[in-house]
Model the fold of this input.
Amino acid sequence: MTAGFEDFDRFLEEARRALDAADRPPSEDEPPGGRGTAADGRIVAEVSPDGLLSSLRADPRVMRMGLQELCDQVVHAVNAALNDLRSNLDARHGAVDVTGLTEALGTVQEESMRRMNLFVEEIGELARRIEGRG
Done:
């Protein structure tokens, strides 16, 4: 039964490390938000990690566009920045396989219940033996 407890302890330690990694704030190497461009790079939108538009820059040449085209290009740049943010967050949190972790925890729970039931049965059998001697 000792090997079972060692396996259980090892699994919990791995799970703890994976969850700790997911909780760490982004490092300086990771992009802090998202960035998108439109109009051949003449419009640049940046969003913060919380999804708010933090910067919108435009080359003065975009003023030659019609108003509707300019608005469409701004929307395109902002949406591209939000998609970039989503990708960055997915990449950051993708290191933890939540589904796999959930399944593994379920397996550990089932195994621990099975072993606990066996342990209780053995204790019951031992108690019956002791009572039979008395």
